[in-house]
Structure formats: structure tokens, C-alpha cells
Specification:
- There is one protein chain.
- The radius of gyration is 25 Å and the shape is flat.
- The chain starts with 5 loop residues before the first helix and ends with a helix.
- The chain has 4 helices and no strands.
- It is 73% helix and 0% strand.
- The protein has 106 residues and is an all-alpha fold.
- InterPro entries: DUF7322 (IPR055746).
- Keywords: Membrane, Transmembrane, Transmembrane helix.
Length: 106
């Protein structure tokens, strides 16, 4: 019987030599992590708070609006789905308000 993988096993060395690190391994002293730490240390606490708040409200708003509309459309749960969708719209409105507030103050 012929082994179809026999030729591959002979010719194909390991894709990673022992000297070469795996592409999935990361160094703890990366330049990118140092740059990120510098950026966060240079950023004011007001900017960071506005960014994180807007980010969380946007994610929650998009999720709640989508799930609420899906509940209304596909399951006919008008009361619960409508409340979730309205809550999502409120969260998206707060995201816009946070953006405008920060834009005025900076």
C-alpha cells in the first residue's frame, strides 16, 4: 500500500527551525507595547474617561438596538424587544452626547 504522506514527511522540514521563534510568540519588550504605554501616560484622564465611556456606550447601544429589533421582528415580543431597542438608542444617543461634550471642552 502506498503512503501518500511519505513524500511530504521526507521533503518538508519543520516550518519553524529551533533558532527561529514561532510567529505566535511575543516578546514582552515589544516597541509597540512601550509606545502604547507612552500614549496612555501622555493622555489626560478626561480624554481617557470620555473615550472609554463612548466606546462602552456605543457597543452596548449597537448590541441592544440590534437584539431588540430582532426580538420585535422575529419573535413578536413588542414590549421586551421594544424596550431593549429603545435602551440601545438611548445608549447611542449618550455616545453622541459624550463626543460632542468632549469636542467642546477640548
Amino acid at each position: 500500500m502506498i503512503n501518500p504522506l511519505e513524500k511530504l514527511e521526507e521533503d518538508d522540514p519543520s516550518p519553524f527551525e529551533e533558532d527561529d521563534p514561532s510567529p505566535f510568540e511575543t516578546d514582552s519588550d515589544d516597541d509597540e507595547s512601550e509606545e502604547l504605554q507612552e500614549a496612555f501616560s501622555d493622555m489626560s484622564s478626561e480624554t481617557l474617561l470620555a473615550f472609554v465611556s463612548a466606546l462602552l456606550f456605543a457597543h452596548v447601544g449597537l448590541l441592544a438596538t440590534g437584539v431588540g429589533l430582532l426580538l420585535v421582528i422575529f419573535t413578536g415580543q413588542w414590549l421586551f424587544g421594544g424596550a431593549v431597542a429603545v435602551g440601545g438608542i438611548v445608549a447611542l444617543t449618550l455616545t453622541g452626547w459624550i463626543y460632542r461634550w468632549y469636542d467642546k471642552t477640548s
